[in-house]
Specification:
alpha/beta, Rossmann fold, 2 domains, 6-stranded parallel sheet, 9 helices, 12% strand, binds pantoate
Length: 230
């Protein structure tokens, strides 16, 4: 596996590439969720690339940019063992200059749900994903369905900008107890972990009710709130 640090070097290396390229963009601290994306990429493509870049523009003031888990040595091993050919590990100064042009997420869809709690977060995500896709020019790019709003906005960006890449969305990987795997789960103490689990439990409850034909959203909301109650 080759480790490449600058966009220029990577673009030079890929200049005459004719093989299919699979790409998994990450912020590192890889877990089984990432591994499922990597394994699928390796299965589908002839040349496989993972990027590790903790993208500063998607973190808001006061968020965990400075303490985001860094496990580069372990990540490198995981990628190598999984059959990745190129690990792209750029520095911030190689990815951004001052006062840049940005991708701005759509007014409504980018600023509801997580976007309402983290205004500007998705602008940062879309901007870096646009950069990464332009640098790598992959045939297929792999994202987890866990970050559903991110996946939906990236799909819209690819559609709106007529980008050629195919997006492959993959299922969320969960712990045995139902908690979705996330690099940030290490922040949760026992109580918070229990609370986090209620999110998947409440969604499961709603799914069961819908399967039973109960489609009234107010009733579904009431039942979900019962599960979420402390
Ligand atoms: O999902 C992530 O890890 C990040 O948001 C991404 C897509 C790598 C962009 O920084």
């Amino acid at each position: 596996m080759t480790i490449i640090q600058t966009p220029q070097e990577l673009q030079d290396l890929l200049k005459n590439e004719t093989r299919s390229i699979g790409f998994v963009p990450t912020m590192g601290a890889l877990h089984h969720g990432h591994l499922s994306l990597i394994e699928r990429s390796v299965k589908d493509n002839e040349l496989n690339i993972v990027s590790i870049f903790v993208n500063p523009t998607q973190f808001l003031e006061g968020e965990d940019l400075d303490k985001y888990p860094n496990k580069f040595d372990a990540d490198e091993k995981i990628c190598e063992l999984a059959g990745i050919d190129i690990l792209f590990y750029p520095k911030k100064e190689d990815m951004y200059e001052d006062d840049e042009i940005k991708v701005i997420s759509p007014n409504i869809r980018g600023y509801v749900l997580e976007g309402a709690m983290r205004p500007g977060h998705f602008d940062g995500v879309l901007t870096v994903v646009m950069k990464l896709l332009n640098i790598v020019s992959p045939t297929k790019v792999y994202f987890g369905k866990k970050d559903a709003q991110q996946l939906s906005l990236i799909s819209q960006m690819v559609r709106n900008f007529h980008m050629k890449v195919e997006i492959v969305p993959l299922e969320t990987v969960r712990e045995d107890d139902g908690l979705a795997l996330s690099s940030r789960n290490v922040y949760l103490d026992k109580t918070q972990r229990k609370q986090a689990l209620k999110i998947s439990s409440s969604l499961k409850k709603a799914t069961q009710l819908v399967i039973q034909g109960k489609l009234n959203t107010k009733d579904l909301q009431k039942e979900m709130l019962k599960v979420l109650a402390p």
